[in-house]
User: What shape does this take?
Amino acid sequence: MSGSSRAVLAAIALALAGCGSDEGDRAPAPAALDQQLLAAAYANDVREARALIARGADVNFKDRTEQSAYLIATSEVGDDPGLLELTLAGGARVDDKDSFDGTGLIRAAERGHHQIVERLLAAGIDRDHVNRLGWTALLEAIVLGEGGREHVRTVRALIAGGVDVDLPDGNGVRPLTHARERGYTAIAHLLEEAGARE
Assistant: This one.
């Protein structure tokens, strides 16, 4: 096969895949844009993500691991709300769930991302959704958190946002009990001030 024939076949393959070989070729197919958006989200590249969304990438598109740009923005890029704001403006389904049937609020709370928690609560996310493990966002902040400054701030944000401080886990254990058992004094104090029961 000649070099020119290979070039023609490569151009056809790229076109069929939805990726043009030259500036003037067709734009990438929507699925390719969606995949590119996921990559930009993981990199916390807000500028690239904004450009991809403007070109039609779907902030709710999920890969085989049930990750979307929106869910990534709630948990995988630190406590930086820039990408989250972009996905919300791009039509993110605020109560969308991950593979554990967890919301973005649960994901953010587990990681101690208090700014993300505050933004999601302001967006009207389900405050007391229970995931497949039997935990709410408050329980994840305590059970999977470290009890340090960021998780204390996260618990404070959750309480201020109106979560049910007495909603137990699947075994009937309440948040205050979990906090005391782990020696998380500051979190236990916040829960006590909010009227939580053991």
